[in-house]
Write a structure and sequence with these properties.
Mean pLDDT: 81
Structural class: mainly alpha
Order of helices and strands: HEEHHHH
Distance between the termini: 25 Å
Number of strands: 2
Low-confidence stretches: none
Length: 110
């Protein structure tokens, strides 16, 4: 919370995740967009904490259909970055709305 400041300063969770450096960089011209690696901007310590938490979730994956499908489609490191991105968006949502984390509500959207 101290690093983020006011959650209302970010328009949405994607903007917060981009500020942390957890969304893929994009480059392109003529309508062709190429996805690159994560940008690694923002607070390195908070991004590291989210990546470690995501790595733990992926390693302990027992019943998440979303993570299982993600690992089937993408390499391990890419899946970890995607889960860290999702955690950052959830973090922003909880702080911006002031409501407690409700896993049933969020898992229905996935």
């Amino acid at each position: 919370v101290a690093t983020m400041g006011d959650p209302a300063s970010f328009k949405n969770g994607r903007e917060f995740a981009a500020w942390l450096g957890l969304v893929p960089r994009q480059t392109g011209t003529g309508g062709r967009i190429q996805q690159l690696g994560i940008s690694k901007r923002g607070d390195a310590y908070l991004r590291t904490l989210l990546m470690h938490g995501a790595r733990s979730l992926v390693n302990r994956n027992k019943q998440s259909v979303w993570i299982t499908g993600l690992l089937a489609r993408r390499p391990y490191s890419v899946a970890v970055a995607a889960v860290a991105n999702k955690l950052a968006r959830i973090l922003w949502s909880v702080l911006a709305t002031g409501r407690p984390y409700e896993p049933a509500t969020l898992s229905a959207a996935v």
